[in-house]
Specification:
By secondary structure, the protein is α+β, with helices and mostly antiparallel strands. Helix content is about 20%, strand content about 30%. The protein is elongated, with a radius of gyration of 23 Å. The model has no long low-confidence stretch (mean pLDDT about 85).
Length: about 200
């Protein structure tokens, strides 16, 4: 009968190795790390960790850590935002914010927000917005656009007169491009740090 794999203990050892070495271990190093007599014994746990999304095979078959190990934050459960309820702290998984927020890393970039034209959408000066380029915007998507040579972030819309961009602040007016409109991407997430 195959022995039960203690994934949590192995993940702790792999995270400690990453903090120390900055890379994934070789099969031989992993055998030492896990206390196995040979590197052949490592293949079962490695395949299990690949299936769970903690490891992947890189070029030449080398093992590479995913964000679940390199940038993970413990996911302890959920919290009710309404009335208080008893909460138990239970380690459910480890989440990499990159993997959670970014669908297409090659097409994603961050911008720091300045100004207050999107404050009613919950986007404030100093926030970071995660933007995905190369996607066609739909009505009410928040987009980054160059309008007549000036960059802005607004809601996207279209009517009989054509494309328009709406702010999320009554102090500002709707924008209609006169000469040019270039879509720089769609805002996928807002990141705000509380100090």
């Amino acid at each position: 009968m195959p022995r039960k794999i203690d994934i949590a203990a192995k993940l702790d050892k792999l995270r400690a190795f990453f903090r120390r070495e900055g890379r994934a271990p070789s099969y031989s190093e992993m055998a030492d790390l896990f206390g196995y007599a040979s590197k052949n014994a490592v293949y079962g746990p490695v395949n299990h960790l690949i299936a769970l999304g903690y490891l992947r095979r890189g070029s030449g078959g080398r093992l590479v850590f995913t964000g679940k190990i390199t940038a993970g934050i413990a996911a302890l459960g959920s919290i009710q935002a309404g009335f208080p309820s008893p909460a138990e702290e239970e380690l459910l998984d480890t989440i990499s914010l990159d993997e959670f927020l970014v669908r297409r890393p090659e097409a994603t970039y961050l911008l720091t927000v300045s100004g207050d034209s999107m404050q009613d959408a919950g986007i404030h000066a100093g926030d970071l917005v995660l933007v995905e380029k190369g996607v066609t915007p739909k009505k009410n998507d928040i987009i980054i656009a160059q309008v007549d040579g000036e960059w802005t972030m607004k809601y996207f819309g279209r009517d009989r007169q054509g494309v328009f961009l709406d702010p999320a602040n009554d102090k500002y007016s709707r924008i209609r491009p006169h000469n040019s409109l270039k879509i720089g991407g769609i805002v996928r997430a807002v990141i705000r740090r509380y100090e």
